[in-house]
């Protein structure tokens, strides 16, 4: 197994740097049929753990004052979820938090939520609930 990291800069709308890291599995066989041994559940769990790591790293960056890096990490996690799993509520939450970091509206509550979500994912808990938007 390996990872593929794609980085790009959006030049229209809100100018931002994006990073998406996707796990890559190489197998031999008839490529037209895909990998019959690939488990959708394992793939989803790997993606969840990648996003949890992005959340944890973003929180650490924000706590040390590096809001740009924190914002890019959350945007990358949102892109990964949107690309691979399409979880709209979590994607939107990550994008909202990334924007808050970019605009200097990061709060202790947002930091705590990132820690909680990352920790829950690493402990095997699902946190598929909606969070209210924070006031501006």
Give the helices and strands, then pairings.
Layout: E1 2-10, E2 16-24, H1 40-63, H2 67-84, H3 88-102, H4 108-122
Antiparallel strand pairs: 1-2
Helix pairs in contact: 1-2, 1-4, 2-3
Give the low-pLDDT segments.
Answer: 125-136
Order of helices and strands: EEHHHH
State the share of residues found in helices, binned by percent.
40-55%
Give the CA-CA distance, first to last residue. 42 Å
| Rg calculated over all Cα atoms | 16 Å
Could you say which overall geometry the principal axes of the C-alpha atoms support?
Answer: globular
How would you explain this protein's 3D organization?
With 136 residues, this protein is α+β, with helices and mostly antiparallel strands. It has one domain. The chain contains four helices and two strands; from the N terminus they run E-E-H-H-H-H. A two-stranded antiparallel sheet has the order 1-2. Strand 1 and strand 2 form a beta hairpin.
List keywords for this structure.
disordered C terminus, 136 residues, two-stranded antiparallel sheet, 13% strand, alpha+beta, 2 strands, globular
Short description:
53% of the residues lie in helices and 13% in strands.
């Amino acid at each position: 197994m390996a990872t593929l990291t794609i980085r790009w800069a959006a030049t229209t709308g809100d100018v931002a740097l994006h990073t998406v890291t996707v796990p890559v599995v190489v197998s031999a066989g008839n490529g037209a049929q895909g990998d019959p041994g690939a488990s959708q559940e394992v793939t989803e769990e790997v993606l969840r753990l990648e996003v949890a790591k992005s959340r944890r790293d973003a929180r650490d960056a924000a706590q040390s004052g590096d809001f740009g890096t924190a914002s890019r990490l959350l945007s990358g996690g949102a892109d990964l979820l949107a690309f691979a799993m399409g979880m709209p509520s979590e994607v939107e939450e990550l994008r909202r938090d990334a924007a808050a970091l970019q605009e200097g509206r990061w709060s202790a509550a947002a930091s705590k939520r990132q820690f909680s979500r990352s920790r829950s994912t690493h402990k095997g808990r699902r946190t598929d609930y909606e969070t209210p938007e924070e006031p501006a």
